[in-house]
Specification:
This protein has 15 helices and no strands. The longest helix has 51 residues. The N and C termini lie far apart (46 Å).
């Protein structure tokens, strides 16, 4: 019994969870991210039910993503000026209140887009504040473990939101589903209020707007680029995270076509065959890194993550051939193989995301961190448009399997570039 108590006490995952303000932050993250991810899918279902138009669905997706490109950098500047706990609190109150406006009868589709756009803008303030506040709560020695738990919450709520959105809408209907989502945002604010931060006068109140705010704002934006050029580790982490996000967006575009044309099963099976196993793999990676990750260099983990992902991407289109090399003792089908491959990809991606986020938080200070995460969100939003547009067109021309294989080789090349980076 004493052995287990010592093992638990020495495990960084359990140590970081004993920090009460961090635990409150993770509970706030769970409820707000669950609401945010469910909202994505619920609104997609609602829009399609209203219009039966794929173009209309594209409009709602753009309403989610466009604010990341245009507002992330701006929000990062203000997050650094303001007390981050207050940013988290008011962003969730604002998002919950906006959701309640969806209860207005016979809401025009244009107004739905507008409300979604406003919720996405509020989210651009929430995201950098949430990531930037972690080092304030846990300290440098536990940052990797804290990010592992943080990432586990993100991955878990994405899958849970994806799975629950449809059934919740069917069981509760539109009105009560919207009320539930708003309630989840408001529950999150309760835990945010419970977070106690070190008193720092600089962040107690937003700075008053004056005639010099324009010049100050421009200077703060310039400071981001000077800092990134100067601190190579942060530049490396930002590039790695952006590439990883772009690849994930690309696979999201190719996923339905892969399931339908390569696996020859229903598109609705995508979440069960690919998304859920990948999320479980990410969760497993998060737990493992949180426990022993600090023994390894961030660069090494990134190389392994990209290299493994690349190899698995190459295997995805040839899964049927892999099946022929396996013993006939068990009835193993292509679907079983894909589930295992998706799990491994999820695990590999966690080796990229978690250490890179930890690097950013360690290498930046309180005054800069929000702007760096704002810049990251803007970069991801801008870069992700390219693979989303290109991947679909190339898949139509050359086939989904060919494009996925090409992405795999590209990731292997990237792993070599990371290895060579000094």
């Amino acid at each position: 019994m004493k052995f287990f108590k010592k093992a638990i006490a020495s495990n960084d995952i359990f140590r970081v969870l004993q920090i009460r303000p961090f635990t409150y932050l993770m509970l706030a993250e769970f409820f707000s991210q669950l609401a945010f991810n469910m909202q994505h899918f619920v609104l997609i279902f609602i829009i399609y039910a209203l219009t039966h138009s794929n173009t209309a669905v594209s409009g709602i997706i753009l309403s989610f993503t466009v604010p990341a490109v245009f507002f992330s950098l701006i929000s990062g500047v203000y997050v650094d000026r303001w007390r981050k706990r207050n940013v988290l609190f008011y962003a969730n109150v604002f998002r919950g209140a906006l959701l309640l406006l969806f209860l207005i009868p016979n809401l025009h589709i244009g107004f739905i887009y507008f409300l979604t756009f406003l919720i996405a803008i509020a989210t651009q303030f929430f995201l950098p504040a949430e990531a930037a506040i972690i080092p304030t709560l846990v300290g440098k020695k536990l940052i990797l473990s804290a990010n592992a738990i943080f990432s586990l919450g993100i991955y878990g709520t994405i899958v849970t939101g994806y799975i629950l959105a449809g059934p919740t809408l069917l069981i509760l209907g539109k009105t009560f589903t919207v009320i539930l989502l708003a309630l989840l945002f408001f529950i999150s604010t309760f835990f945010i209020m419970a977070i106690k931060l070190p008193d720092k006068k600089k962040f107690d109140k937003p700075q008053l707007v004056d005639s010099t705010i324009g010049l100050s704002f421009v200077e703060e934006i310039k400071e981001i680029f000077h800092f990134i050029r100067r601190v190579k580790k942060v530049m490396h982490a930002l590039v790695v995270l952006t590439i990883a996000e772009a690849v994930m967006f690309m696979f999201a575009v190719l996923g339905p076509g892969y399931v339908a044309t390569v696996l020859n099963v229903e598109i609705e099976s995508l979440s069960l065959i690919v998304i859920a196993p990948a999320a479980l793999g990410m969760g497993f990676g998060a737990v493992l890194l949180g426990s022993i990750g600090k023994k390894f260099k961030s660069k090494t983990l990134g190389v392994i993550g990209f290299l493994t992902s690349g190899l698995i991407f190459i295997m995805f289109p040839v899964g049927k051939r892999l099946n022929s090399f396996l013993p006939n003792i068990f009835e193993i089908t292509i679907l079983h193989i894909v589930v295992v491959l998706a799990f491994i990809v999820g695990f590999a991606i966690s080796l990229v995301f978690i250490p890179s986020n930890a690097t950013i938080q360690i290498e930046t200070n309180e005054e800069m961190r929000g702007r760096i995460y704002g810049f990251l969100n803007a970069l991801v939003g801008a870069v992700s448009f390219i693979p989303v547009v290109i991947a679909g067109g190339l898949a139509d021309l050359f086939g989904v399997g060919t494009v996925i294989t090409a992405v795999g080789f590209l990731m292997i090349i990237i792993s070599g570039m990371i290895f060579a980076f000094d």
